[in-house]
Design brief:
By secondary structure, this protein is mostly helical. Helix content is about 70%, strand content about 0%. It is built from eight helices and no strands. The protein is globular and about 55 Å long.
């Protein structure tokens, strides 16, 4: 099964963690074992750790990381338009923007590995209800897909647009997490835009689905692998379903239940 990794890397000078699959598989294996089993066993007879200061630094760092990533990709893709949006292929070796593409894609890959700490912090704080299938699946798939693209296709290409949109959403998401950890004297539930973070995550997958569909249908001569576009469509559908289901359960049904007692009270008064 691993013989496929004997094929030469598209990058003649692979960056750390991108050539061999074993480091990435080891990271994901340890992650899955810890958050699903070993971490809970370790915390079984322990009190939740107070990670407030650590979480403040981590979340603020993620805000800066994702915000900077979005700014760079937006500048080059939207303002300078160094790629054709109808067909974004990886730049050939020697292209003036090749190193920029390599390091930006690699920075996104490293950020997806850092995102795994979200779940580790949940375990150490005993917030097990937040460790859903959606949460774990999303984190593992993002790391796996980022690695697979770099190893078998190369850096950048069509997925630059995906990273740009995703980093914008994560900038606001981690800012919300920072406010939650900082506890500035107000209830985090009072932040009116809380539910719109989940909605923005849902919208990003809708946009990704539409964009991949456009390239498939209207750019038949595009050199970007169609199998990767189909994979992106499949993942977008899966995530739309999962995030849509989460949004309905968390916000729509909760608001509906909250409105029912108020209506009942009004009817009794009448």
């Amino acid at each position: 099964m691993f013989a496929i990794f004997n094929s030469p890397s598209p990058d003649p000078h692979p960056l750390p963690l991108t050539n061999s699959p074993w480091p990435t598989l080891l990271i994901l294996g340890v992650y899955a074992l810890f958050v699903l089993k070993l971490g809970k066993l370790y915390m079984q007879k322990r009190q939740p750790y107070n990670l407030r200061k650590l979480l403040m630094c981590y979340n603020l760092g993620q805000v800066a990381y994702n915000g900077l990533f979005f700014g760079i990709t937006f500048y080059y893709l939207v303002l300078r338009q160094i790629s054709d949006w109808r067909c974004m292929e990886t730049f050939p070796q020697g292209h003036q923007h090749k190193n920029l593409e390599r390091y930006v894609h690699y920075a996104y890959f490293i950020n997806k590995i850092l995102d795994l700490l979200d779940t580790v912090f949940f375990v150490l704080r005993k917030n097990y209800r937040q460790i859903s299938f959606l949460h774990v699946y999303h984190h593992i798939m993002m790391v796996t897909i980022c690695y697979g693209i770099m190893r078998f296709y190369g850096t950048g290409g069509h997925f630059n647009a995906v990273g740009m949109v995703n980093s914008l959403v994560h900038t606001f998401m981690y800012f919300y997490y920072f406010l939650s950890a900082a506890n500035f004297g107000f209830k985090i539930e009072s932040i009116w835009w809380k539910k719109y973070i989940t909605l923005s995550q849902l919208i990003q997958f809708v946009l990704i689905f539409i964009y991949a569909s456009y390239v498939l249908l209207f750019s038949p001569n595009c050199g970007f692998p169609r199998c990767l576009l189909l994979l992106q469509l499949l993942q977008a559908v899966i995530m739309m379903y999962m995030f849509g289901n989460f949004y309905l359960k968390t916000y729509m049904r909760t608001e509906s239940k909250a409105a029912q007692p108020a209506q009942g009270h009004k009817m009794r008064r009448d």
